[in-house]
Amino acid sequence: MQIRSMTLLAAASIVLVGCNKAEPWPEEPSSRPVKVMTVIVGEQSFTRQFPATVEAGDKASMSFRVSGRIDDIVVRSGEAVEQGQVIATLMSDEASLIKAQSLAMFQLAEVQFERAKALIKDNVISAQSYDDSVGMYKAAQARYDQSVTNYEYTQMVAPFDGNISLVFAEDHQWVNANEPVLNVQSRELLKIEFQLPDYLLFSFQANPPKRAQVRFDSLPDSSYPVTFLELDTQSDLSTGSYKVTMAMQRPEGSRIYPGMSGQIEVEIPQGTPNSLPATALFDCDGKQCVWRLNDSGSIEQVAVTLTESGEVESGLADGDQIVVTGVDSLSSDLKVREWVKEQGI
After folding, report:
1. Which domain, by its residues, includes 265?
2. Angle at CA 171, nearest 5°, toward 166 and 177?
């Protein structure tokens, strides 16, 4: 009995010792939790082709400011003109006569005004007479100035360097003021217009294409780069599409003219670029830098170039992950893991 009691006591002691043994603490992870974001640069894109037409970069419908009979249309359709060059004239006999008459009346009024100034000082004439003289002088001056302007309006000059595209009138034809006589188009700048389907509108607005090229039906072996100019925000009532205007410089010696048709190929970015928060940026040798996560789970320092709105121009690519908080306390090759907010119980 005594031996059995001692055996039970020893077993109980072993159990108690086992129960009191402390459990080991779990090992802390070797990586540091950081808050990250995924970068969207907008590098990924898809290509679409649209029918396009050529328009003049600058064009003007030219008319005379006064009515009259055309004396001479100096230029013809397709002819090159320089800024300030006379391109058409009205018969100016009547305008010249009116200018001469108004000059004579102005000179007479000026003499009478000078005489009145001398007489009013000696109180020879009344103040009323002097005021009448002043009024007639100013009215005569205004009529003369207007006659000079009207005479100048009998000449039409080119507003810019370009080409005559259309001529609507003929010599000796009577034209009213502001009635179109001819059109002038610029030589250097061309506009390329096409219709954008409505389902691409928002993508196009958020990310105007960085690259596009046009190929003309009459020049199938050549393509030309174009740049985005503007997007109409009101749709065409018949098609529901939106007009997009691109711009290109006319290549020297090219045979590209307004009215020609072709195909424009546009790269439309996928996704809207996001802006990097200020907390993700730090200075490194005078440049803006971020911490980028690499495939090994550590971070590396990367210099970036940003737009005014904080979007990435260079240094990062779509899908890159960067640290956005606590960047000043990090160092290269540090092992990190994405911080995940714990859910409350």
Report:
1. 50-58+189-269
2. 75
